């Protein structure tokens, strides 16, 4: 079994594997190409995202500068906006749902190095998936750690460090991120798009 296969099964793998190094180089070439495009090059950006990601939905807008580790472990739904400076370390699967907004300088890290120093310097890495639901807003500067699921219709406050699952339909913030309250009808501001 290859180290990539172990990664896909969420098993401990050797992060220093030469084949994984090559896959990282391919991803870097693609995201650097993406980052050098202009806003007018919509089709070129779409083509690059199609090569970089496992799956990318319709009407996805991603601002440069974007970085990732492999890209092939990232799934993005429809109508997603990813603001400037996003970093997705996708050793484990990272899934972003439909109609989701990712604020500037948001990072998601889907892996943990071994806590044991001998194992860590030998390359032991443990991938765990990150799942961001539909209609979620992740505030700027937030960090999402491995193994976390954020439920549908939730707002994560700016600067949060999300260390555990957050349920649907809530506002959560802080370090570590905690649920502050449910989102209710009182949160509507009366906006209607024509």
Give an overview in words.
There is one protein chain. With 194 residues, the chain is α/β, with parallel strands linked by helices. It has helices spanning 3-8, 18-35, 42-52, 117-121, and strands at 13-14, 55-56, 61-62, 67-68, 74-76, 81-82, 87-89, 94-96, 101-102, 107-109, 111-113, 124-127, 130-132, 137-138, 143-145, 149-150, 155-156, 161-162, 170-173, 178-182. The strands form 4 sheets. It has a 7-stranded mixed beta sheet, with no helix packed on it. A 5-stranded parallel beta sheet has the order 2-5-8-13-16, with no helix packed on it. A 5-stranded parallel beta sheet has the order 4-7-10-15-18. It is globular. The mean pLDDT is 97.
Task: Provide the low-confidence segments as ranges.
Answer: none
Percent of residues in helices comes to 10-25%
- Give the SSE string: HEHHEEEEEEEEEEHEEEEEEEEE
Shape summary:
globular
> How many helices in DSSP terms?
4
Count of strand segments = 20
Could you say which structural class the secondary elements and strand pairing correspond to?
A: alpha/beta
- Going across the biggest sheet, name each strand in turn: 3-6-9-14-17-19-20
Average pLDDT for all residues: 97
Biggest pleated-sheet summary: 7 strands, mixed
Terminal-residue CA separation: 55 Å
Strand residue content: 25-35%
**Integer-rounded radius of gyration:** 17 Å
């Amino acid at each position: 079994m290859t180290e990539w296969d172990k990664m896909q099964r969420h098993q401990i793998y050797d992060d220093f594997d030469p084949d994984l190094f090559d896959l990282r180089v391919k991803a870097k070439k693609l995201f650097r190409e993406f980052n050098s495009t202009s806003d007018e090059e919509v089709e070129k950006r779409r083509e690059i995202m199609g090569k970089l990601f496992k799956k990318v939905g319709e009407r996805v807008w991603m601002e440069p500068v974007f970085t990732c580790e492999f890209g092939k472990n990232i799934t993005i739904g429809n109508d997603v906006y990813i603001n400037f400076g996003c970093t997705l370390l996708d050793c484990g699967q990272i899934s972003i749902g439909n109609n989701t907004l990712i604020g500037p300088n948001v990072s998601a890290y889907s892996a943990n190095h071994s806590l044991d120093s001998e194992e860590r310097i030998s390359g032991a890495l443990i991938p765990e998936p990150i799942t961001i639901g539909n209609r979620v807003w992740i505030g700027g500067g937030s960090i999402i750690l491995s193994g976390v699921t954020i439920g549908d219709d939730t707002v994560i406050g700016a600067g949060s460090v999300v260390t555990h699952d957050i349920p649907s339909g809530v506002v959560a913030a802080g370090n570590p991120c905690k649920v502050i309250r449910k989102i209710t009808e009182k949160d509507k501001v009366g906006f209607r798009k024509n």
